[in-house]
Amino acid sequence: MFLPFRSKQLVWSSFDLLLRECKPSRLVSCFSVFPYRTLHNAIPTGDKEAETKRVRIYTRTGDKGKSSLLTGERRPKDDAVFEVLGTIDELNAHIGLAVAHCRCIKTPGFVAKLENIQSTLFDIGAVIASHSTRPDKIRGNLEISTFRFDQSKVSELETWIDEFEGSLPALRNFILPSGGLASAQLHVTRAVGRRAERRFWTAFQHTLPIIQDLKDQVETLQHIGQYLNRLGDLLFVAARLAAQETGNPEVLYKKPG
Fold first, then answer.
1. What is the DSSP string of 15-75?
2. Which is nearest to 43 in space by CA: 70, 7, 16, 17?
3. In the chain, where are the structural domains located?
4. How far apart are CA 17 and CA 54, in angstroms?
5. HEC states along 164-228?
C-alpha cells in the first residue's frame, strides 16, 4: 500500500532522516497509532538502498504501555497526544470507507477531494507527533522546522465548502444523519471528525500558552485546529451532496410526540 503523502517535503525529509539516523524500531513506534507500518512502499523511487528496507510490523517497544513521538519522547499510550493521533487515524479510516461508498457520485472532484483530505490528515499526524514544548530536549537530529501546516489548507477547505453548497438547496430544517449509505457514512465521518477536533484541543489547550515564544509552533497548531473545524463543516455539506447525487432523501427532524 502506498502512503498518501501529499507533502513529500514535509514528511519524507524526516522519515529519511530517521531511517539514516535512528533504529527502525523507533521510526515505527513514532507512528504506532497509524496503520502504515510497512514504510518501504513510501520510499521515493530512485533511492535503491532505501527501497530495499522493510520495517518490521511488530517492535515490542510498546509492550509496557508507552510509545514514542517523532521527537524520541516516550509517553503513556493513553496520553492526550496519542488520543488525538488515534482519533485522526480513526477519522481517516472512516473517510476511506466513505470514499468506497462515494465512487458512484458524479460531482467532479468529489472523491478526489476526500482522498486529498486523507493525505492531509496523515501530514497533520506527522506535525502533531513532532510537536515539542522543549526543542532543546529533542533526541537526535530531527528538524522540527520541517513540520509545518499553514493557512492555505484551511482556505482550500473553505473553497470546497462553498463549491458543494452551491449545488445544494437552502437548509431550512434540522436533518438527521440519513440520505443513503454514502451520505450516512459521511455523517458518521463528520461526527468522528468533531471528536478528533475535541481531542486535539484537549491535547494542546494547555500547551499554547507555554510556547508563545515559539511562534511557528503556535501558528501551526492553530492552523490544525482551524482545519479540523472546517473539516466538520465540509463533511456535513458533502453528506448532503451525496444524498442528492444518489437520489436518497434526507430525513428531517421532527419533534417527538
1. HHHHHHHS-HHHHHHHTTTSS---GGGGSPTT-HHHHT----S--STTTTSEEE-TTS-EE
2. 16
3. 72-252
4. 16
5. HHCCCCCCCCCEECCCHHHHHHHHHHHHHHHHHHHHHHHHHCCCCCCCCCCHHHHHHHHHHHHHH
Grid cell 503523502 in the structure block, residue:
5
How far is 39 from 14, CA to CA, in rounded Å? 13
In this predicted model, what pLDDT tens digit does every residue of 206-221 receive, in sequence order? 766 555 556 667 788 8
Angle between helices 110-129 and 8-21 (to 10 degrees): 40
* Predicted TM-score (pTM) of this structure: 0.77
Is the Cβ–Cβ distance between 193 and 91 less than 8 Å?
Answer: yes
Q: Which CATH architecture has domain 72-252?
A: Up-down Bundle (1.20)
pLDDT digits (tens, 9 = 90+) for 6-55: 444 444 444 444 444 444 444 434 444 444 333 333 444 455 555 566 77
User: In this structure, what DSSP letter does residue 135 have?
Assistant: G
pLDDT at position 250 over 90: yes
Stated length of the chain: 257
Q: Kindly give, in sequence order, each residue whose CB lies less than 8 Å from that of residue 151, ignoring residues fewer than 6 positions away.
A: 223, 226
